[in-house]
Amino acid sequence: MAKRQTEKRAGRRFPLKLPVVVKFLENGPYEVTGHTCDVSAAGAFLYVNSGITGISEGVSIDFVMTLPSEITLANPIRVQCSGKVVRVHQEEDKQGVAVAINQYDFMRLIRDTVELLLQAVIVPGNRTFEGRLVEAVALPWFEIIQLLGNDPALAFQIEPRKWEEIIAGAYKAAGFDEVTLTSRSGDFGRDVIAVKRGIGTIRIIDQVKAYRPGHLVTANDVRALLGVLEADKASKGFLTTTSDFAPKLVNDILLRPFMPARLELVNGKALLARLTELAIKKRVT
User: Could you tell me the pTM of the whole model?
Assistant: First the structure.
């Protein structure tokens, strides 16, 4: 059996046997199936059937490989690659094809993510005068949190109402007895209301600000929440943001006496950490 030649490599290669669909573009496009032997950011080595003709150095090639969940830690991803054959290696029952990749297409990944973000993350219950009760979290709630763990920047692509649903789901997953997702308008500064009953009753209100990086929550924003907290007579208020808070806000003389007993600030980093921890615990139980 012939041995594969040693070649100069632009980057580290990973031994991955992944199914591929290969399209050769010379002399009329035609497709064959095969699998990868190893993959890097700059190229791949593929195996296809030995009966395929017309494969030679310099031939343009497209191929699609599927990255499984074990690699992506999320949904499988289909990656379309374009490049040129740089070497052909003949073996007894198959041909090895070394490909220099010059373009990737992750549209399937983008499409899958968009479709996921459109799905419901909570199971809605009855409507009350304050909003819609949350009965449970749905499977996409876990999947979105997993995606956020892999790519925190995704947080800034999620629209504000979806963030309110995600956080409402978090309270339900944490074991609160009654969680309400308030209406889009007329919520009186309360996006989520969570109630826990025991020896006494604890009522939490959460105001969610889905801000982009650099858009900071100000001291005036937090002071406004204090007014909402007082009017609602809630036990505690949270102000949750995907971004961060203005510098020195925690030292504000009007706010400091209330933190953290009656008022708690959760920035984007802390939010992701809490959601990830909660999702892991919920799956285990």
Answer: 0.63
